[in-house]
Amino acid sequence: MRLSRNRMWGTPPLVDFLERLAAQAPRVGWPGLLVGDMSQPRGGPMLTGHASHQLGLDADIWLTPMPDHRMSRREREETSATDVVRADRLDIDPRVWTPEHLKLIRLTAKQPEVTRLFVNPAIKKALCREAGGDRAWLSKVRPMYGHNYHYHIRLACPAGQDQCDDQAPPPGGDGCGEELAYWFSDAVLHPPKPTKPPKLKPPMTMAALPAACRAVLKAR
Ligand SMILES: [Zn+2]
To answer: Which long-range contacts (CB under 8 A, 24 or more apart) does 126-131 make?
Structure first.
């Protein structure tokens, strides 16, 4: 989706993964994937939007089911994404949330390559409520600001890539207790307005990246 952003680039393991997931999705009633941002060409930091999505191992999947046809470039620019969270941010919007949303997220979380999946806290709340007895996959599903139009997938370092360091695995358990409740605290839902403008982080430069990244940048 949004091809004009030019963020549809990923490592071969990520592209393979998404193709396999897309092929499996119809089995859980999800007609096909609308893939949002992956990485820029050659990866690396970007000026706006993401702290992650740099390694070619992250992808955003829209919470909108694929329509019944292959979308034109224009449709992929202009189609709006679906916000599945209620206006008060406390729960999903039952008018747009469906059992298939849970099934797609569960299918994704159960893939061995997936280490983490980010969703809005209201979505995590719905998953906790609707998951039933099979709950081990919920530990990978992490609450995060935003993520009400799409969910984010992070893959493990591909085998043999010894310069890739995996993040520590998420804490065990389904994460449906205190950890989730924190996201619905007043301080998180309604943070006080900052009195002075927040300090912006300086942009990341090539010099600050591992030397191996320069080789990627300069490769023809
Ligand atoms: Zn993302």
So the answer is: 126/91, 126/92, 126/97, 126/101, 126/102, 127/102, 128/174, 128/175, 128/176, 128/180, 130/99, 130/102, 131/102, 131/106, 131/174
- The tens digit of pLDDT for each residue in 171-208 reads 989 999 999 999 999 989 888 888 888 787 777 777 88
Q: How far is the CA of 53 from the centre of ligand 1 (A)?
A: 6
Query: Of residues 63 and 167, which shows the higher confidence score?
Result: 63
Q: Reading across the β-sheet that carries 141-143, which strands appear in turn?
A: 58-62, 150-155, 114-119, 141-143
- Separation of 135 CA from ligand 1 center, angstroms? 23
For residue 217, the CA-to-ligand 1 centroid distance in Å is: 22
Check whether domain 3-218 has CATH 2.30.30.90, yes or no? no
- From the CA of 50, how far away is ligand 1's center (Å)? 7
